[in-house]
Amino acid sequence: PEGDFFLNGRVVIRSNVTLIGAGVDETFLHTKGESMTIRLSGDNTRVSGFSIISDNQDGGNGVVVEDSIDFRIDHLSIEGYSNQAAIFVSGGDTRGVIDHNWIKNKTANRLNYGIVVYGDNTWKKNSHLGTQNAVFIEENTFINTRHAFAANKGAHYVFRHNLVQQGVAGQAIDAHGPYNGNDEGTQFFEIYDNIIQDPQPSGNERAIGIRGGSGVIFNNV
């Protein structure tokens, strides 16, 4: 329902379950500390229609997805997280859509991802470019992120129709290579029809930084 609520522990969303609020301006979930707040742990899951706020700007990961097929995270406002990411996704076969969210991170010079997608650290033999077998990130707004998006460990992602504003000290859209203790870097990426604007000047900011994998990049501003 609409209203303000305080969460002092993890909320786990199992298969075939939807958690939906009355809207980002009506339902507010408040947290304190770095514990994972909302975790999708199953297939055919969805979270939608509320604001989740770390009141002290000390949140860890706002929403976590692990080994989930056909998930959706949409129409959320997420503010004050990103010990690693506002939305953290992992799993070799994980696929789903993250759309129409507003994400404003706490300020941090390390990690500080809006959304991160990790595979299972394996390299797939067959290309899945142009198919549904990816994590789709679309129609989101990112503010105050070091990387609005980052990927690693064999991930496949589609990043399209997003707005990135006021990025901090790093590329807005990122693909890691095979390092930092990982055997495999990002495998496939599709990056198109995005707008990246007004980065905070640091001397090393860039719109898109690809350090591993292959894919397509077009029609970005």
Give your account of this protein's structure.
- The protein is an all-beta fold and 221 residues long.
- Helices cover 0% and strands 46% of the residues.
- The protein has strands spanning 3-6, 11-13, 18-20, 27-31, 38-40, 46-54, 63-66, 69-79, 85-90, 95-99, 102-104, 113-118, 135-138, 141-143, 147-152, 156-160, 163-165, 173-175, 188-192, 195-197, 208-210, 214-218.
- Strands 1, 3, 4, 6, 8, 10, 11, 13, 14, 16, 17, 19, 20 and 22 form a 14-stranded parallel sheet that branches. A six-stranded parallel sheet has the order 2-5-7-9-12-15, with no helix packed on it.
Task: Briefly summarize what is shown.
With 221 residues, this protein is mainly β. It is built from no helices and 22 strands.
Helix and strand topology:
Elements: E1 3-6, E2 11-13, E3 18-20, E4 27-31, E5 38-40, E6 46-54, E7 63-66, E8 69-79, E9 85-90, E10 95-99, E11 102-104, E12 113-118, E13 135-138, E14 141-143, E15 147-152, E16 156-160, E17 163-165, E18 173-175, E19 188-192, E20 195-197, E21 208-210, E22 214-218
Parallel strand pairs: 1-4, 2-5, 3-6, 4-6, 5-7, 6-8, 7-9, 8-10, 8-11, 9-12, 10-13, 11-14, 12-15, 13-16, 14-17, 16-19, 17-20, 18-21, 19-22
